[in-house]
């Protein structure tokens, strides 16, 4: 994220009074501020590794703890109410416990596999929780400092941990965009979902009733801790949020952002009542730079580029008395989906519901979004709230079912339509859509907010319904439809009644309220108008300039930041899509659905039945799309195809593989080659039955296992796949749809598979189903067979049941007399290490690599280079290696040997392309700066300075200790590949893109 360049505010805003400024003598930037529970002292870990301690009544530190030097100390938490114990975490992967009275280290806690980013202690249960970049949370007993549990629910780094005031629950915020609310007793969790960027900070309200979350998406969300519903989304910061903190009386919430501001909000009205400017340091790890004193209410902030702690006294009465600002707006959005199988009349129904005249419509391809209603209400405080209802018409063709799950998030009301004309099965697809909607809500963590569902009979003007009233009533009860309507869009039958039912059926009070500014509303209106005008693809800069011109706005860093955050908000509603390359904004994201389904269809229609299609064919536009569905502009179509491939890889619907014929995009759910009866698929072990989006669940399972480095894909057939293992043996799964939204997955092993391999494979399959299937729908049944290799006799369910009824835990094989265990629990088997976290980590890494590869291809196609690599020819091998690493991360470098055509002047060629390059990196190795490199630097100084692009000095390993850099480079922040910390490649990427690497 680019930093705002507005200078720090000289005078504090009204209501803020600076009491003191605390500055350590050395140690680097401060990474966190943590008050002791009694409010008498505070601790500040630093980038240099030390921890500084201040008493509230002194401006001088009373202790500098060695901490984790030379590593960064990233987090601390007090372990006692009197401040006698404290714990610290670092990128050395360890937690250390310190006695602040004796000033001794008591112990080190080891177990995490990566950087420890968060710590939280519960005084009620004497449990310390630690969150790490390894995606896990570990619990430690402070009685003996032994680990008492490892929690593996998150799929990304755990940035924040906070216990509830009563100690019964704790919340975790993660890189995976979610918050998890954990029960301290049984360690079960529920998911709070809605942020579109990593969740960086959490805070419980003093009464334990609400949780505030700050995210990289620039918004703060307020959650009800009991219902787990989002109450409000606070907009105003121009960049991501690094920390949030409640005042001890619960009246205020403070937030700190990358935009160099701290905002103070009324926690009851969600109104911003003060803005304090604090310039932050340009460091890789975001600082948690605000904290309210739990007793006095003093607000501690990081100032002076995160090198000093400033203590502010707040005039609560003055701040709380600020009247409602007219430039702030309240807004809620409700998403209503119209779904059903193809040809049932959805599009005609959606058309007339939005007030248009009926006309004959074809089948919906992808999706269409209509504005159903836009109204204003006045609340009991006299504030005006805008309520907007959007109607989403989704494609009904079976070919789109793989894509459905991507569009069913945050649904408030669903109209499930069936065709009353059908004489065979009028309810075809109804149960599928019901389960798909429930499953999408479950995956996104929306486990509490009720989704109202109406059953709609369409096209009643054609004829009567061919099923009995009893059958309809049974379906309504089975699926939980609250109302049933018989409609005709053509004749207008019951359309008025249905529209009114939609209005009444939306529970607006359960939907999050957005508190934003007049500027945000202006930007939103502009973006929606651009979309409705039919504009397909635009760059951020073009849209930003168009907004400036149309509104006469002055270009400022603040406006640009607000525009960027607003794009993220509109994107979260599914109305536009920010692409990961070229700074492009896709204003018609529904087209991507059509192209994604066309790709899946093309793979399915391949004559070899292997579910794969050559990527070059896809990129050339060889897709089964009608001419009226295609993008006419070939260049824009090519970019959309690449963006679609990236999205398929992101959601693990497709798998990329190399073959003799080129790179293939394989869809595991689209294979048509029949499964032969191979011996290696003997030895059935477990059968799982589940409900949900069966093909999506199966496809993502195959992709993740294929990327695991533990199980390697061996052979695939229709609904079946086998994996070899890194030890011995073959594992396999077969998946079948047993009904609409119902599936059965069978797990197989060959005879050489070890017990450890079997249990680890079963564990991951079961974990995946528990994550992806409908809650409570997964049923596990073990198939018992003789374990003697030459026998393999399979026992019937009745034999097993009757044996267990007699109280026996074993059964004798009637063929070979072997004694077979009847235990159905993996836990009853010998202890083997879990590989779930290892598989998840490997799958995530491979997915990021494949997505990065596609982003590089898209940047190549659009001519958008991220960085020019200026280097001495003697350093070329090292620079080439760094260039390869950058490409794996999706960063496209400009290298002379790849881009300069032989025989032409290099300077002329370079000048022709410089405006397509966003930054430059000047590498200096053991040989120093070369003669040709000096000429390049001179050009860079002139051209990149004019374009306001960063020029990054990079020291390679072995660079001279005393190096005289050109003056314009000497003042820029260095990236040093001769040091381990901070990680140099991530630092370089940050400098190139302006975005902090998500890995940290």
Brief write-up:
It is built from 22 helices and 54 strands. With 1000 residues, it is an alpha+beta fold.
What does the secondary structure layout of this molecule look like, with pairings?
Layout: E1 16-22, E2 34-35, E3 41-45, E4 51-55, E5 61-65, E6 73-78, E7 85-90, E8 94-99, E9 104-110, E10 116-122, E11 127-132, E12 137-141, E13 147-151, E14 158-163, E15 169-174, E16 178-183, E17 189-193, E18 199-204, E19 210-215, E20 220-224, E21 230-234, E22 241-246, E23 252-257, E24 261-266, E25 272-277, E26 290-292, E27 299-303, E28 308-314, H1 316-320, E29 328-339, H2 346-353, E30 367-378, E31 384-394, H3 401-404, E32 413-419, H4 430-443, E33 452-458, H5 469-479, E34 483-486, H6 495-505, E35 513-517, H7 518-532, E36 537-539, H8 540-551, H9 557-572, E37 577-578, E38 584-586, H10 590-604, E39 612-614, H11 615-619, H12 634-650, E40 655-659, E41 662-666, E42 684-691, H13 694-706, E43 711-717, E44 720-725, E45 730-739, E46 742-749, H14 755-772, E47 779-782, H15 797-805, E48 810-812, E49 819-821, H16 836-862, E50 867-870, H17 876-888, E51 893-894, H18 896-899, H19 906-913, E52 920-924, H20 931-946, E53 951-955, H21 967-970, E54 975-976, H22 984-993
Parallel strand pairs: 21-35, 29-31, 29-32, 32-33, 33-34, 50-51, 50-52, 52-53, 53-54
Antiparallel strand pairs: 1-28, 2-3, 3-4, 4-5, 6-7, 7-8, 8-9, 10-11, 11-12, 12-13, 14-15, 15-16, 16-17, 18-19, 19-20, 20-21, 22-23, 23-24, 24-25, 26-27, 27-28, 29-35, 30-31, 36-38, 37-38, 39-41, 40-41, 42-46, 42-47, 43-44, 44-45, 45-46, 48-49
């Amino acid at each position: 994220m680019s930093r705002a360049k507005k200078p720090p505010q000289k005078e504090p805003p009204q209501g803020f009074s600076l009491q003191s400024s605390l500055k350590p003598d050395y140690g680097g930037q401060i990474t966190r501020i943590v008050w002791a529970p009694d409010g008498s002292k505070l601790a500040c870990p630093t980038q240099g590794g030390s921890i500084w301690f201040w008493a509230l009544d002194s401006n001088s530190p009373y202790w500098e703890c060695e901490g984790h030097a030379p590593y960064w100390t990233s987090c601390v938490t007090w372990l006692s109410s009197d401040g006698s114990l404290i714990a610290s975490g670092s990128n050395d992967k360890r937690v250390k416990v310190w006695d602040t009275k004796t000033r001794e280290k008591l112990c080190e806690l080891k177990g995490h596999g990566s950087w420890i980013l968060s710590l939280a202690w519960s005084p009620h249960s004497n449990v310390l929780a630690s969150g790490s970049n390894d995606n896990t949370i570990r619990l430690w007993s402070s009685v003996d400092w032994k680990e008492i549990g490892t929690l593996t629910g998150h799929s990304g780094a755990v940035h924040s941990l906070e216990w509830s005031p009563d100690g019964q629950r704790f919340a975790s915020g993660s890189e995976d965009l979610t918050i998890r609310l954990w029960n301290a007793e049984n360690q079960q969790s529920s998911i709070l979902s809605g942020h579109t960027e990593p969740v960086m900070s959490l805070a419980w309200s003093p009464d334990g009733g609400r949780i505030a979350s700050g995210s990289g998406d620039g918004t703060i969300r307020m959650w009800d801790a009991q219902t787990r519903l989002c109450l409000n989304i606070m907009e105003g910061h121009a960049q991501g949020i690094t920390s949030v903190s409640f005042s001890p009386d619960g009246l205020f919430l403070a937030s700190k952002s990358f935009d160099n501001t701290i905002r103070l909000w009324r926690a009851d009205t969600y109104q911003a009542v003060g803005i304090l400017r604090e310039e932050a340091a340009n460091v890789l790890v975001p600082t948690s730079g605000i904290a309210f004193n739990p007793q006095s209410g003093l607000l501690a902030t990081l100032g002076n580029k995160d090198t000093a702690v400033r203590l502010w006294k707040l005039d609560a009465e003055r701040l709380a008395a600020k009247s409602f600002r007219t430039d702030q707006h309240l807004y809620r959005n409700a998403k209503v989906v119209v779904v059903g199988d193809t040809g049932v009349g959805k599009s005609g129904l959606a058309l007339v519901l939005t007030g248009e005249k009926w006309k004959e419509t074809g089948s919906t391809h992808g999706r269409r979004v209509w504005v159903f209603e836009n109204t204003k209400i006045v609340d009991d405080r006299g504030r005006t709230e805008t309520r907007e209802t959007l109607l989403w018409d989704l494609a009904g063709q079976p070919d789109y079912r793989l894509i459905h799950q991507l569009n069913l998030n945050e649904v408030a009301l669903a109209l499930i339509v069936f065709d009353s004309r059908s004489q065979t099965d009028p309810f075809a697809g109804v149960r599928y859509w019901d389960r798909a909607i429930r499953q999408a809500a479950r995956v996104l963590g929306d486990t509490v907010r009720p989704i109202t569902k109406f059953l709609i009979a369409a096209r009643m003007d054609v004829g009567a319904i061919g099923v009995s009233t009893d059958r309809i009533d049974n379906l309504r009860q089975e699926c939980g439809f609250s109302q049933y309507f018989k409609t005709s869009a053509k004749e207008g039958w019951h359309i008025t009644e249905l529209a009114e039912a939609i209005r009444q059926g939306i529970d607006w009070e359960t939907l999050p309220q957005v508190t934003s500014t007049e500027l945000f509303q202006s930007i939103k209106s502009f973006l929606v108008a651009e979309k409705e005008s039919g504009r397909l693809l635009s760059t951020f800069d073009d849209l930003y300039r168009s907004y400036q011109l149309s509104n006469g706005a002055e270009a400022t860093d603040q406006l640009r930041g607000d525009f960027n955050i607003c794009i993220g908000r509109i994107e979260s509603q599914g109305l536009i899509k920010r692409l990961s390359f070229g700074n492009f904004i896709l204003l018609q994201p529904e087209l991507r659905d059509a192209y994604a389904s066309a790709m899946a269809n093309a793979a399915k229609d391949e004559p070899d039945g292997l579910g794969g299609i050559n990527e070059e064919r896809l990129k050339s536009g060889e897709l089964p799309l009608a001419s009226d569905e295609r993008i006419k502009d070939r260049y824009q179509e090519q970019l959309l195809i690449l963006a679609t491939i990236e999205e398929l890889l992101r959601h693990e619907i497709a798998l990329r593989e190399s073959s003799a014929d080129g790179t293939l995009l394989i869809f595991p759910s689209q294979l048509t080659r029949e499964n032969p009866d191979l011996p290696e698929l003997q030895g059935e072990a477990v059968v799982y039955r589940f409900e949900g989006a069966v093909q999506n669940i199966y496809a993502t399972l195959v992709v993740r296992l294929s990327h695991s480095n533990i199980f390697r894909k061996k052979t695939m057939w229709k609904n079946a796949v086998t994996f070899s293992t890194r030890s011995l043996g073959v594992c396999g799964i077969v998946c079948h749809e047993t009904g609409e939204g119902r599936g059965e997955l069978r797990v197989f092993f060959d005879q050489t598979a070890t017990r450890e391999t079997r249990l680890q494979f079963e564990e991951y399959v079961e974990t995946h189903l528990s994550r992806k299937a409908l809650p409570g729908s997964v049923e596990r049944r073990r198939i018992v067979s003789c374990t003697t290799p030459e026998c393999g006799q399979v026992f019937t369910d009745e034999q097993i049941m009757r044996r267990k009824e007699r109280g026996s835990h074993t059964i004798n094989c009637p063929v070979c007399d072997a004694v077979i265990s009847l235990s159905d629990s993996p836990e009853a088997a010998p202890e083997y290490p879990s590989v779930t976290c290892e598989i998840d980590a490997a799958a995530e890494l491979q997915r990021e690599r494949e997505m990065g590869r596609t982003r590089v291809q898209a940047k190549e196609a659009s001519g958008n280079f991220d960085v020019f690599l200026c280097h001495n020819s003697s350093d070329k091998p090292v620079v080439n290696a760094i260039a390869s690493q950058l490409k794996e991360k999706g960063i496209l470098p400009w290298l002379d040997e790849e881009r300069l055509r032989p025989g032409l002047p290099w300077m002329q060629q370079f000048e022709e392309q410089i405006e397509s390059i966003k930054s430059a990196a000047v590498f200096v190795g053991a040989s120093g700066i070369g003669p040709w490199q000096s000429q390049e630097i001179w050009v860079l100084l002139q051209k990149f300075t004019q374009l306001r692009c960063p020029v990054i000095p990079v020291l390679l390993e072995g660079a001279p200790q005393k190096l005289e850099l050109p003056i314009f480079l000497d003042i820029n922040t260095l990236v040093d590949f001769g040091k381990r910390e901070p990680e140099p490649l991530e630092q370089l990427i940050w400098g190139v893109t302006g975005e902090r690497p998500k890995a940290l």
